[in-house]
UniProtKB/TrEMBL annotation:
Residues 19-181 form the Glycosyltransferase subfamily 4-like N-terminal domain. It comes from Roseivirga echinicomitans. InterPro entries: Glyco_trans_4-like_N (IPR028098), Glycosyltransferase_grp1 (IPR050194). The chain crosses the membrane at residues 68-86. Pfam families: Glyco_transf_4. Keywords: Membrane, Transmembrane, Transmembrane helix. The keyword Transmembrane helix applies. GO terms for molecular function: glycosyltransferase activity. This is Glycosyltransferase subfamily 4-like N-terminal domain-containing protein.
Length: 281
């Protein structure tokens, strides 16, 4: 039996994107031949590996010198991505799975190069035109870009029924399939752990309040810190588990290391152990 070949692409290093990984693993378990391509920001991550039947490729984008030069970095990034997609276009795939709008233009190009002989799937991980920090000419650009590119897609996937209905209203397309951002169902009962207490030396008498996710503006992080300061809890600590542009700001908090902590992302297979280590989140 010939397996359908799937090329799935995302612009991150695939360390913590459980949605993308779980979809790829599910396809592989159903007999699809899946190649998943991301980018390699940290050289400690393998350039290629095989996990649960999925071939994972991480492409190293740029060196330290190029990363420091803003406009050179932007041009280099565009040229780099186009080169990688042209290389992949030589391989005979049956399905191209584009995660988020920032990969869709390359998927459309691959479909055109292959004269439409490949199916194109657009997986919108959020309501793209309403992302945090998107306004002005950038909002207009994203709106027009999505409206144009979505016409080339054979199927669209979203994260919730409300967004799916909105895409039908906006673009007049077939209602997108909905795949929720849910963890894999576990048959075993979750055993509560104390990983944060062990890592940061937090005493058992203090309750742990956990924020878990990216540390970017617009996610309520500043509000959480302000509320925590106002409450001034003697028996509580605040742990931010994630990475992003606000990491350094959190570390400047006067109570950082005492009642405010930051922990980096962890792999999905151990994430539940960390989540269960908090008292509230």
């Amino acid at each position: 039996m010939i397996k359908n070949k799937v090329f799935s692409v995302v612009f991150n290093d695939l360390r913590n994107d459980n949605r993308v990984l779980n979809q790829a693993f599910s396809l592989a378990s159903e007999g699809y031949d899946v190649t998943l391509m991301g980018i390699q920001r940290k050289t400690s991550l393998p350039a290629t590996e095989q996990i649960n039947g999925v071939k994972i490729i991480r492409k190293r984008m740029m060196n330290n010198v190029i990363e420091r030069i803003k406009y050179v970095r932007a041009v280099y990034f565009i040229l780099f991505v186009w080169l990688q997609f042209f290389r992949q276009a030589r391989i005979k795939y049956d399905i191209i799975h584009c995660h988020d709008l920032n990969t869709l233009q390359f998927g459309v190009l691959m479909k055109l190069i292959k004269l439409g002989k490949v199916k194109l799937i657009y997986d919108a991980h959020e309501y793209e035109t309403q992302r945090n920090g998107l306004h002005g000419w950038r909002w207009t650009y994203v709106k027009l870009k999505e409206r144009f590119l979505i016409k080339f897609c054979d199927r669209v996937i979203t994260v919730g029924p409300t967004i799916a209905d909105e895409y039908v209203r906006l673009y007049g397309i077939e209602k997108p399939a909905v795949i929720l951002n849910c963890p894999i169902l576990r048959s075993k009962e979750v055993i509560k752990k104390n990983l944060f207490r062990e890592h940061f030396g937090i005493p058992a008498s203090k309750k742990i309040f956990l924020y878990q996710g990216y540390l970017y503006p617009g996610r309520g992080i500043e509000v959480i810190l302000e509320a925590f300061d106002q409450l001034n809890l003697a028996d509580g600590v605040l742990v931010f588990m994630g990475e992003g542009t606000l990491t350094d700001e959190i570390k400047k908090h006067p109570k950082y290391g005492e009642s405010v902590f930051v922990h980096p992302f962890v792999l999905g297979d151990v994430l539940l152990g960390y989540t269960s280590s908090a008292d509230c989140g």
